[in-house]
Amino acid sequence: MAMLLPLVLVSCHNKKDDSTDTNYMSGTLTFSIPDFVGKGETLTLTPTGITTPTSGIGYSWKPSWSSTRDTTKTKDGTGDGSWDCTTPSAVGEYTVSCSAFADDYSSTSATKTIYVVDPTIDSTVSGLGFKDSPFVTDSRDGKTYFTTTFGGNTWMRENLGYKTSGSISYFNCEIMDDIFGRYYTWNDARTACPSGWHLPSDEEFCQLADSVIADGTIFTKGEDFKNASGGMMANAYFLGSRMWEYWPQVNITNKSGMSVIPVGYVTARDNSYTFKGINNYAVFWTSSSYDDGTALLRFIYVDEPDVHSGIMDKTFYASVRCVKD
Fold first, then answer.
1. In angstroms, rounded to a whole number, what is the distance separating the alpha carbons of residues 244 and 305?
2. Intra-chain end-to-end CA distance of the chain, in Å
3. How far apart are CA 65 and CA 101, in angstroms?
4. For the chain, where do the domains classified as CATH 2.60.40.10 start and end?
5. pLDDT given at position 14
6. pLDDT of 70-89, one tens digit each?
7. Per-residue pLDDT tens over the stretch 138-156
8. To which CATH superfamily is domain 8-117 assigned?
9. d(CA 71, CA 79)
């Protein structure tokens, strides 16, 4: 099942009654709300986008977690129609709808889907196997990371979520840093790990894969790790939906305890960021530079049993796993 992604629906205008002088509003009603929010978080939502009429517009709001419709601004009232709301106390998928109305105009509405999340173990994401695992605390921001010792090294079992000046949150929602980690360029990744930890070299990834296979295979730098992906992947669920789609050729065992999940990667162009590969790819930087402009990374694709090696521009955004010095 594909990971739930943010969805915006804009309703059609009500059908005009030819027997009246009802007009259609001009513009597109919208409002800004984070795609992912915390439990019990307070938000202020403000409607925008209606250009005609220019006055006499009322707004009402309807969240899916409540049976009450809140009319924040009547047609002859003051204010901008903003609405203060508190998100539910339970994680899950919800919707918020806003309607605009005015005399002699058909109403119009907009609906947005949000996801209420919680970084607590087995709350938003289940099946990672973190219970009773050892952990380390990053003294810089107080974040904790579960760890696994495998293949001769101790690794973080979670993607790094430390905020650097150049890193990016999942769909630009910082609350997801504790759940999916952040995305880093290679230069950021090289210095992002906390003291006593470092960005792993490709050789250290090779050692990890050697132990996953455990049949005497010795992988070398830049080589694909044949049949090693399942030993690093977790059969995890995001808000109840399976993250790695089932494929018979991939046997997910999480033997290494790495608990890898498919949070994709990010590309940037003209200061615009595009989130790609969600639910299909897990992509990690290595510290191994290829040339002045590119570096080695490791990635897993949903329906392939191998851990692949790739060469990407150092401005590409990928996840980071730290390994202990």
1. 12
2. 38
3. 23
4. 8-117
5. 46
6. 998 888 888 999 999 999 99
7. 999 999 999 999 999 999 9
8. Immunoglobulins (2.60.40.10)
9. 12
